[in-house]
Amino acid sequence: MSKIRLLVVGAGGHGRSVVEAAELSGQFEVVGLLDDSLPAGDRVVGVTVLEPVVSMAHHRVGADQAIVAIGNNTVREKLFQQLAAAGFDWATVVHPRAIVSPSAVFWVAET
Description:
Helix 2 (73-85) links the parallel strand 5 (65-68) and strand 6 (89-90). The chain has 2 helices and 6 strands. A 6-stranded mixed beta sheet has the order 3-4-2-1-5-6. 23% of the residues lie in helices and 23% in strands. The chain is an alpha/beta fold and 111 residues long. The radius of gyration is 14 Å and the shape is globular. The chain has one domain: Rossmann fold (3-Layer(aba) Sandwich), CATH 3.40.50.20. The model has no long low-confidence stretch (mean pLDDT 93).
């Protein structure tokens, strides 16, 4: 089975963690990073920074799924909406050694 080609938006600390978890999961091939603060061509944890975030639609052909790896919730939501408008499917990345506490409670906000 071929790996899912993953585009990661954000190359900071959260982005590095997502890249490592995605690769360790064995499900993804990280095809690149989009980040506004690093020049194209830089490499972060072995993955190339492709372009600034505004170029996300250009990378739809080369990626099967995308994930926003930015800690700021407001910025993350805005970028998720832009990725959806560009036609991206969402990735769910789970570290292979992740555990859920037995005391964790599932909660859904009422709308």
